[in-house]
Structure formats: C-alpha cells, structure tokens
Amino acid sequence: QVQLVESGGGLVQPGGSLRLSCVGSGFTFSTYAMNWYRQASGKERELVGTVTTAESGTNYASYADSVKGRFAISRDNAKSTVYLQMNSLKPEDTAVYYCNAVGHRTPYTDDMVAYWGRGTLVTVSS
User: Fold this and answer.
1) pLDDT, tens digit (0-9, with 9 covering 90-100), for 63-80
2) pLDDT value at position 109?
3) What is the Cα–Cα distance from 6 to 117, expressed in whole angstroms?
4) Per-residue pLDDT tens over the stretch 10-41
5) Which of 6, 36, 116, 125 is least buried, going by the fewest C-beta atoms within 10 A?
6) CA 15 distance to own-chain centroid
7) For residue 5, what pLDDT is reported?
8) In whole numbers, what is the pLDDT of the chain averaged over residues?
C-alpha cells in the first residue's frame, strides 16, 4: 500500500520558519520525483518545489518563483522522506501543503503514476 504522510504544518507568524516532512512507503522512493504542492483556499493548486535524485545519487531541486530564495526542498532517500524548509514566511504562503510522488511503477516503461498525501495545513498569521 502506497502512502505519503505529511507532517509539520501549523500556525506561524510572518517572517517565521517551518519545516514540513513527508514520509513515503510502498514504492521505490529514490527513483521518484518528489514534489511539494500547495493550495490556498479558493485558489488553484500550485507546484512549490521539486527534488529528483539522479542515477549518480545527486539531488536536484527547483522552485516556483513565488518561493525561490525562501524555501528549500530536500530529500533523504534512506529515510524515504522529503522535506520542505520554509523561511521568511508570508501570509500568502498560507495553504494546505501536499506531498506528491511521480515516477514509474516499472522502470523504462510508460506506466507513470502519481501519489498524493492528504496534506498539512500551514497558516501564516499575526
């Protein structure tokens, strides 16, 4: 059974920091691209950041312009965990943050799958 379980959300003041975690199970974590999405109330789901692990073992991260320089995505494949470090938080960062995994059930096939966590709420407010 595939699971993605987010944690670390909560209430934080503007300018504060928070670190989200997502633990995956039931799939080959290291071969999947791991993503963080967020969805604010009444708004479209937004891709926040992506981190992939190359065959060399090197991790590569990318970010939405709205969070670049403030957020950092990382992963620990040995722990099947992806993190989102959020700094300098703004009220507009308030959203439900979702962990997402994208990859192939079987390598070198077109059997692409995507898995989603249930989300964790981040509220940035004074």
Assistant:
1) 999 999 999 999 999 999
2) 86
3) 6
4) 999 999 999 999 999 999 999 999 999 999 99
5) 125
6) 20
7) 98
8) 97
Across-strand partners of 107? Answer: none
Sheet-wide strand order for 81-86: 3-7, 18-25, 81-86, 71-76
Which structure tokens are listed for 85? 């470090």
- Quote the tokens at residue 41: 């109330």
Please check whether residue 117 is in contact with residue 80, taking contact to mean a CB–CB distance below 8 angstroms. no
- Provide the token pair at 82: 């992806």
Cβ contacts of 83 within 8 Å, gap of 6 or more:
19, 20, 21, 22, 73, 74, 75, 76
109 DSSP 8-state letter: S
